[in-house]
Amino acid sequence: MSIPFIAVEGPIGVGKTSLSKTIAESQGFCLLKEIVEENPFLTKFYEDIEAWSFQTEMFFLCNRYKQLSDIKKEINVTDTSVVADYHLFKNLIFAKRTLLPSEYEKYEEIYHILTKNMPVPNIIVYLYASQETLMKRIALRGRDFEKNMDPAYLQQLSEDYHIFIADFEARHPEIPVLRFNGDELDFVNNEDDLTYMLNEIESAIQKGVQANELT
Fold first, then answer.
1. Cα–Cα distance for residue pair 42/145, rounded to 1 Å
2. CB count, 10 Å around CB of 18?
3. Which of 6, 64, 66, 81 has the lowest tally of Cβ within 10 angstroms?
4. Set 70, 79, 85, 150: catalytic member
5. 163-213 pLDDT tens trace
6. DSSP of 60-129, one letter per residue?
7. pTM
8. Is residue 85 flagged as an active site residue?
């Protein structure tokens, strides 16, 4: 492993940003936090997914591209370790679920052009939870644009993540994927759960550093 670059991923409401912040604080990493509430299309998206999905996904893709371009410069200049509350592959998960086939084909072409030569995380932390847990957490954070979210959409998104992560592991065996069940682990309110998760992440970082030293 080169410089540690951790991506925390999982469906909406699972706690990606909260865990990413904690990892950044405990490890002294740079925190890369995706832009969400600034997306001007999100409210309309949750009201009418089919009508507003392309605009929504393109906004996210362009902003994530800009963020990764900036962090690429930082990594190259200062060897900064990074933890992000997303991986770029999430763009494909969401877009494939919401876009029409003809739109997705165009979107995928743009995605591959923009993401070529972008820095790639070398550790994935995958958080998942039941629909009930996700809906409770979404309600607690109280974002206005999420009030109209269809629970069925959230359930399908969770299933899409499971499928995508399994495929990712098969295609990238060199990148460790740490799985944490949000129904069993409450790292926000339970210090023991948080300690366990941080220890697992630290262990993955150390294994990567040791493997890099041997090559």
1. 6
2. 17
3. 66
4. 85
5. 999 999 999 999 999 999 999 999 999 999 999 999 999 999 998 766 655
6. HHHHHHHHHHHHHHHHHHH---EEES--TTHHHHHHHHHS-HHHHHHHHHHHHHHHTT----SEEEEEE-
7. 0.90
8. yes
pLDDT tens, residue by residue, 38-76: 899 988 998 898 899 999 999 999 999 999 888 887 776
Structure-block tokens of residue 115: 């993401």
Sorted by sequence, the CB contacts under 8 Å of residue 179 that are 6+ apart come out as: 126, 128, 165
Do residues 5 and 122 lie in contact, with contact meaning Cβ atoms separated by under 8 Å?
A: yes
Q: Are 133 and 183 in contact (CB under 8 A)?
A: yes
CA-derived radius of gyration, the chain: 17
Q: Give the amino acid at 182.
A: G
DSSP state of 188: T
Query: Residue 7 and residue 125: Cα distance in Å, rounded?
Result: 6
Whether the CB-CB separation of 12 and 157 falls below 8 Å is answered with yes
